[in-house]
Amino acid sequence: MSTTKKIAGALLATALGVTTLSACGDAGDKSAGGAGEAPKSKTVTLVSHDSFNVTESLLKEFEQQSGYTVKVLKSGDAGAALNQEILTKGSPRGDVFFGVDNTLLSRALDNGIFTPYEAKGLGEVKPEYVLDKEHRVTPVDSGDICVNYDKAYFADKKIAPPQTLDDLIKPEYKNLLVTENAATSSPGLGFLLASVGKYGDEGWKDYWSKLKANGVEVVDGWEQAYNERFSGSAGGKKAKGDRPLVVSYASSPPVEVLYGEPQPAEAPTGVATGTCFRQVEFAGLLKGAKNEEGGKALLDFLIGKKFQEDMPLQMFVNPVVKDAKLPELFTKHGVVIEQPQTVAPDTIAKNREQWVKTWSALVVK
Asked: Would you say the pTM of this structure is higher than 0.70?
């Protein structure tokens, strides 16, 4: 959730305090091999945002089968992690980078930080997620940024929860929505892009003017919005949050069930399915990687069925492989977003900075 991103950054698993994988292997083990040579090092380093996670036994299985030891270097949110790789282009801190999503993809590709590699098993990935035909990046997961609602609030008020972007500007939802700043937050940017996808380059500005007039609240990031201001989350209840609508993820309701104490029979939150933006996360072989062959093996692993089916309960994102199955927690308490908003990566690349500047002037200032 993606995520997300989750741009980049603040995926759900980290924000809810899920234990993340610590670095494995010998950080001092160096590789002297060049491209095409057998690496002397058996360590392969994955550079990632803070929300990367995998079941330890599955990672050990990969290490035993491949002969490589995996080191995970976590580097903050996705945007910050990507910035560091751009700054160290050609002399990367690792072999594979995971966590760049479709809102920042063009930036990564334009800066030339990846070496093309067509991962084994790529043919099993749903074609709509293969956004780079040169295979500089490999799609790993997808997630949907959506408005979540507090079921109890709307039941008590006898008001139907909103389901679409159009609903959010109606009088009955005045002063109910909190969203993240599009300039500082992955889900905030995703929600802005949802409005661009829905209303076009001109119409989204008018939409946000109406949303502002209807009392939307803007905070810096997902943690503050979801765990402090949103009345439907466990954290928001403790913080006495008074906003029953929040921009979060379609995977948020299953997480509320998983970490509920006691675990509820039904998710306390719902998803407004007509408000969503599809986020796709990618991994790529870093140009100048010390262990290029190990990096390729790791990319193959990331789109293998075992990892793909492990991801949902580790990072709360969806697999991209065709036959990967979702866990019961997702199928029972989650929702499938059939028609999310999307914006082409090249269109995002051309307009992202200006869109964010315009949005900030319209909504924040």
From this structure: yes
